Amino acid sequence: MTLAIRTRRWRYPEYSSSCISARKADMDGILLSVSVMKLANHEREPRAFAAKPDHVDAYLRVLSALMLRDMRTRFAGSYWGYLVQVVWPVSHMLIIAFALAIRNIPAPFGESSIIFAATGAVPTLVFQYISREIMKGILINKPLTYYPQVRSIDVMFSRVLVEINGSFMGVVLVFLIIYAIGLDPVPLNITSAIFGYICAILLGIGVGSINVAIVQVFPGWVIGYVLIGILIYLASGVMFMPNDFPEHIYAIMKWNPVLQIVELVRLGYDPNLPITIDYLYIFLWILGTFTVGLLLERTIGRRGN
User: Fold this and answer.
1) Tell me, what's the pLDDT at 4?
2) CA torsion 173→93→236→296, rounded to 10°?
3) Which one has a higher pLDDT value, 57 or 245?
4) What is the distance between the alpha carbons of residues 113 and 115, in angstroms, rounded to a whole number?
5) In the prediction, which pLDDT does 70 show?
C-alpha cells in the first residue's frame, strides 16, 4: 500500500503540493464541522447553569477553528504564508524610506525617515487590512454559515481577531527593526500613538462590517474596494505631510478620517507638529460605521443565510 502511494506521488508531482494543501483545507473544514456538531449537541441539552461553561467552550472551539482556517488558507495553504501579512507593513516602511533617501529628501518631521514612514504606513495598513479581510472572510467562509450554529457575525469576529493579531505582530516587528538600526521607537506621547492605533482598528472593523453587507449583495465590490483602498492610501499622508499643503486643500483632505488617525499617531512622536485633531469627527466615524454595519448584518446578512 505504501509503495502504491509513493509511486502515485512520483508519477504525479502535483499530487504532493496542491492536493496536500487541499487536504489541509479539508481537515480544517472537518475540525470546524466537529466543533459545530459539539455545539449543536450542547444546545440540545437542558439549559442548566452547569451546562453554560460547556456551551462557551464549544463556541470558542468554533471560533478557533475559523481562525485556524483563515490563517492556513490565506497564503499558499500554509501557516507560514500568514507571515506575509506581518512583513507587509515593514516592506512599505522600507520602500518609502528608501525613496526619500534616493531623492535626498530629509524626513518631513523628526530626524529619521524610517519613523516618518512607519507612523504613516502602520495605521493606514491596519485600517485597510481589517476593513478588507473581514469582507473577504465572509466570501471564503460563506458555506460554513449554512450551519445554524455559525453566523456571519462569528465569521467576522474570528477574522477580526486574526487581523488584530497580525497587525500587532507587524507593529512589534517594526519596533524591533527601528531599534536595531539605533533609533528609539518609543513615542514621546505614548497615549496619542496608542489611541491612534486603536482608532485605526475600530474604524477598520466598522467599515469592514459595512463591506460585508455590500459584498453579499454585490460580490464585485471586492475589486471596487481595492481601488478605493489605493486612493485612501495615497490620500492619507503616508508619504507626505498633509499640513504642508495650502490651507484650503488641507481642509478638504481633513475630511478623510484615516488621515486624521495618521496625524494622531505622528503627534505621539512629535507633539510640536502644527496639527489639530478633530477627535469628535473620528469618534462619529467609528460609531457611525459600527451602527450601520451591525444594522446591515441583522438585515442583509441574515437574509443571505
Assistant:
1) 42
2) -40
3) 245
4) 5
5) 74
Average pLDDT over residues 95-105: 76
Query: 152: Cβ–Cβ under 8 A, 6 or more apart, which residues?
Result: 138, 145, 212, 297, 301, 302, 304, 305
Give the distance, in angstroms, between the CA of residue 275 and the centroid of all CA atoms in the same chain.
Answer: 27
C-alpha cell at 43: 444546545
Summarize pLDDT for 176-187 with one digit per residue, the tens: 888 888 888 889
Report the predicted TM-score, pTM, of the whole model to 2 decimal places. 0.77
Give pLDDT, residue 103: 74
Whether 260 and 279 have beta carbons less than 8 Å apart is answered as no
C-alpha cell at 73: 488558507
CB 221 within 8 A of CB 211: yes
Any idea which residue has 496625524 for its cell?
A: 263
**Average pLDDT for residues 31-36, to the nearest whole number?**
51
**Cell reading at 69:** 482556517
CA-derived radius of gyration, the chain:
23
The model's confidence at residue 77, banded by pLDDT at 50, 70 and 90, is low
- Non-local (6+) Cβ contacts of 108 within 8 A are 116, 240, 241, 244
Per-residue CA distances from 64 to 68, 70, 126 (Å):
6, 10, 22
pLDDT of residue 178: 85
Residue 194 exposure: Cα atoms within 13 Å on the Cβ side: 5
Farthest-apart Cα atoms in the chain, separation: 76
Residue 24 burial (C-beta neighbours within 10 Å; 0-12, 13-18, 19+): middle
Contact 251, 238 (CB under 8 A): no
- CB count in 10 Å sphere of residue 293: 23
How many whole angstroms separate alpha carbon 206 and alpha carbon 163?
14
Q: How far, in Å, CA of 163 to CA of 37, rounded?
A: 27
pLDDT of 284 reads 96
